[in-house]
Amino acid sequence: MNIRGMSLASGFTNRLKEWVMGSRESDASSMVLYDRTLLWLTIGLAVIGFVMVTSASMPVGQRLSDDPFFFAKRDAFYLVLALGMAMVTLRIPMDFWQRYSNIMLLVTVVMLLIVLVVGSSVNGASRWIALGPLRIQPAELSKLSLFCYLASYLVRKVEEVRNNFWGFCKPMGVMVVLAVLLLAQPDLGTVVVLFVTTLAMLFLAGAKLWQFLAIIGSGIFAVILLIIAEPYRMRRVTSFWNPWDDPFGSGYQLTQSLMAFGRGELWGQGLGNSVQKLEYLPEAHTDFIFSIIGEELGYIGVVLALLMVFFVAFRAMSIGRRALEIDQRFSGFLGCSIGVWFSFQALVNVGAAAGMLPTKGLTLPLISYGGSSLIIMSTAIVFLLRIDYETRLARAQAFTRGTR
Q: What is the DSSP letter of 269?
């Protein structure tokens, strides 16, 4: 390779590294005080989600309301609502969320109690509060409010978490309270996300390894008991091991999902040409939308969607790390927790659709149909943009003072 070719290759590598990690040098001097890559990735995922929800939901929309675009219209409504909320949230400094994180958590607990009393039930689970055309799912809010509370707690008690077992147990106790309320709905999937992300945050804060081993062991034991206690959970676990043993019973949803992936092959059947969405695959536009992506867009579409989701998660971790480096600890811990949350939830959703994990009822971030999920996850992305803005602004101010 000649010198020009090596220079081009080096320049491309540096640009790719800056795109993934963010440019430190430009952070100090550039006037662009927001993460453009994160913004475009989010918009791209929202567009893919809207297109795939429209495609996957047309048959069930036609059956339920004689309108094939019923769910597409609702998804567009939630997208507009999420955008409106994002424009407001983006102007609120992170100090506000740190100060009122306790109130956020309290409001979430109250909503989780309300949903147990007056919540509307779907498929045997009472998870939604109906407010006219809106259906609010407090379980989605519980993720963001818990992570805000934990980030605020770690700012105040990080030394106690590192040196005192009781300081480690306090945030786990708050998580357990939410877990009990969520299991009463029931919603084991959200509990697993809260548990894993809480442990990740405590690990980042520097808690001792033996504490993690004790809590992880206790958590695994508790999950096993919860699975054994409910017959439907036991059926989910056993059916994913070999769904073909009962392809028209407990393994029906997974076998239909695997058929969708099989039909997709490399390039897919083409947008709108899915067969499994013709009500062969239940919940095709929500929990199993990834299967429809695989069938219509093929292996290429699956890889592209996964790369976009995990690049968002990676950027979240990078934004959190940069905030921690300049001692913005609340923003740093919250940014890292959002990164873990997005990546783990996507992993569980994809694993369930591909038959690697039991079905958990978790959405694919920013893609699956679900108003509450879309609003909360877009709010989390706005938090990341605000954290990145404040971090870049602090670096720019430090750079300005250093050049005087």
A: S
